[in-house]
């Protein structure tokens, strides 16, 4: 792999722009996850670490990426609607987090839309 100092200036600029974009996406994703933890903490009357555990549990047991579960949970209060698969998994995840049980692994990740069904 060629180091940045050995790349042409335009290649360096492109690489840096891609890195900045990845960092921006990561920052936004992290903020949404933090907000979703707040939603779970409020709804489930949990401590923040339990909210994080519940969020991970929903992701793992629905095969939906964590950032997508988080996005749906953050949008839930404004929309008044939550995808059925997440809605069904949330009570078990809250109880799981409350009791401190160990989480299972996850299988393939599923794509989900937070909008109302058409």
From TrEMBL:
Pfam families referenced in this protein's UniProt entry, alphabetically: ANTAR
Domain ANTAR: from-to ranges: 13-74
Chain positions covered by the region annotation Disordered: 96-118
SMART domains: ANTAR
Alphabetized InterPro entries for the sequence: ANTAR, CheY-like_superfamily, WH-like_DNA-bd_sf
Protein name in the entry: ANTAR domain-containing protein
């Amino acid at each position: 792999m060629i180091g940045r100092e050995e790349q042409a200036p335009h290649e360096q600029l492109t690489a840096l722009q891609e890195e900045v974009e990845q960092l921006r996406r990561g920052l936004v994703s992290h903020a949404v996850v933090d907000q979703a933890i707040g939603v779970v903490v409020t709804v489930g009357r949990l401590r923040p670490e339990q909210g994080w555990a519940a969020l991970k549990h929903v992701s793992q047991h629905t095969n939906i990426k964590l950032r997508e579960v988080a996005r749906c949970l953050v949008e839930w209060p404004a929309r008044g609607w939550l995808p059925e698969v997440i809605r069904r998994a949330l009570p078990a995840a809250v109880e799981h987090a409350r009791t401190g049980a160990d989480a299972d692994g996850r299988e393939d990740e599923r794509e989900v839309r937070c909008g109302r069904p058409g």
